[in-house]
Design a protein that fits this description.
Elements lengths: L9 H9 L9 E5 L2 E5 L5 E4 L5 E6 L2 E5 L1
Antiparallel strand pairs: 1-2, 3-4, 4-5
Length: 67
């Protein structure tokens, strides 16, 4: 692991940390059977039965994995 040769000053540490900014995720709105859902783009979603039990993962309308 890399070890710094000298101590980093408080001002430099805080200046470096201040550059980090969180961004809100871009959600995609979809309407299925009259129900509006928001999901992350390019991610498989879980398909559940009426009781809420996960059945499988679906991506672009195709089954991609078992739950």
């Amino acid at each position: 692991m890399a070890v710094p040769k000298r101590k980093m000053s408080r001002a430099n540490t805080r200046a470096r940390r201040s550059q980090w900014k969180a961004t809100a995720p871009q959600l995609v709105k979809t309407v299925e059977n009259g129900k509006v859902t928001y999901s992350l783009p390019h991610q498989a979603k879980v398909v559940t039965d009426s009781a809420g039990t996960p059945l499988y993962f679906e991506y672009k309308g195709r089954k991609v994995a078992d739950a």
